[in-house]
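User: Hey, my collaborator sent me this sequence without any context and asked if I could get a structure. I don't really work with proteins. Can you help?
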Amino acid sequence: MIKRIEATGKAKETIAFLKENFGALFFYQAGGCCEGTQPQCLEVGSFFPRTNDVCIGQVEGFDFWVDKDLFEYWKHAHFTLDVADGFGVGGFSLEVPYGKTFTIHYRLFTDAEAANLEPVKYNTFD
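Assistant: No problem. I've predicted the 3D structure and written it out in structure-token form, which is a compact way to encode the shape of the chain:
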């Protein structure tokens, strides 16, 4: 099965640091508004995905949720979670006070990859 989300080494290091300091984490990437489309790293229980938002996989054991409309736009793309030095627009994300910001790099799946993608999970509150 082809993963929809993976992380760079730098992102994995940052996640390990955040896990050590905050415990259980999850990621949420919205479709706009105050946080733009920048991925947010949050503590489990501090935010809840909305109905029909989509979990596209896990990064370092933590769920990566995407806004339902954003997923429809990017469902044919692979996400690579990365981290950069500096402050992004995502002031709610846990890495921001440490001078880091998570980013996403996209690439379209090949036809062969698209035929063998890991399934996604929709938030249905079941």
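In plain terms: Helices lie at 9-22, 68-74, 111-114. You can pass these tokens on to your collaborator as they are.
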